[in-house]
Amino acid sequence: MRIRQHVNPNQVHFARFRGERPELDGRAVELEVGCADAQFLFERAARDPSRHYVGLEIREDLVDLVNRRARSLGAPVRAVFCQAQLHMTEILPPGSVDRVYVNFPDPWFKRRHHERRMVDAALAAGIAGVARSGAELFVQSDVWDIALDAMATFERDERFANCAGEWTFWRGGNPYGVRSWREQNAEETGLAIWRILYRRR
Ligand SMILES: C[S@@+](CC[C@H](N)C(=O)[O-])C[C@H]1O[C@@H](n2cnc3c(N)ncnc32)[C@H](O)[C@@H]1O
Fold first, then answer.
1. 23 in Cβ contact with 6 (< 8 Å)
2. pLDDT tens digit string along 25-58?
3. pLDDT exceeds cutoff 80 at 93
């Protein structure tokens, strides 16, 4: 199957939510925004199958692949087709998420494409809406500008507190014991990775 490399999240095609909401049952929920193949979530689920793992993804083919894989493995992983900045609070109930990961968001390097970047005030509002008080928010990127922009976004939002201190990157590495596809790739090619860790107030 041919998977598209990138899609423009601002296309009108993505404006209305057409995905399927995950069925939750009170167990803890971990959420990855922009999950792609959900390697990170599948590995988290293998370590602790007692939780729900929800991935939000704008490429529909990948959503289908992830959900087929989850069914065949019997893994508690579920991908949801959506435009995360627009639909997060339609997908998940308020305060239902215990941890949020934003792993290696697309950099959209060209200046005219910056408006396609995923981490912005709307995404922060969505995360604040679905995360419970005390929930962790972990962001990582191998692109300095993206990491700094993400930090600026969450520093400006009073609903989040930086665990490392204001305007400070997280130096404790990835504390979750698994790696996303992009993270594995960045580490294997020796790229620097910038990380930030917040708590929902
Ligand atoms: C560079 S990939 C990283 C994938 C994975 N998190 C990793 O670290 O390997 C970024 C992913 O975010 C998805 N994405 C980009 N904008 C999005 C949006 N607005 N809503 C949902 N997913 C989005 C892309 O389709 C892509 O799969």
1. no
2. 999 999 999 999 999 999 999 999 999 999 999 9
3. yes
Which of the following is catalytic: 37, 98, 106, 142? 106
Is the shortest distance between the CB of 85 and ligand 1 below 6 Å? yes
Nearest residue CA, atom 27 of ligand 1?
36
Q: Who's near 160: CB < 8 A, 6+ residues apart?
A: 124, 128, 137, 154, 198, 199, 200, 201
d(CA 59, CA 71): 19
Tell me what pLDDT residue 42 has.
98
CB 146 near ligand 1, within 6 Å: no
Whether the pLDDT of residue 1 is over 90: the answer is: no
Test site for ligand 1: of 61, 64, 106, most ligand atoms within 8 A of the Cβ: 106
Residue with tokens 């962790």: 136
Contact in structure between 7 and 58 (CB atoms under 8 Å): yes
Which ligand 1 atom is at minimum distance from the Cα of 102? 6
| Rounded Cα gap, residues 198 and 160, in angstroms | 6
> Would you say the CB of residue 139 lies under 6 angstroms from ligand 1?
no
Over the stretch 58-89, which tens digit does the pLDDT of each residue have? 999 999 999 999 999 999 999 999 999 999 99
Residue located nearest, by CA, to atom 4 of ligand 1? 36
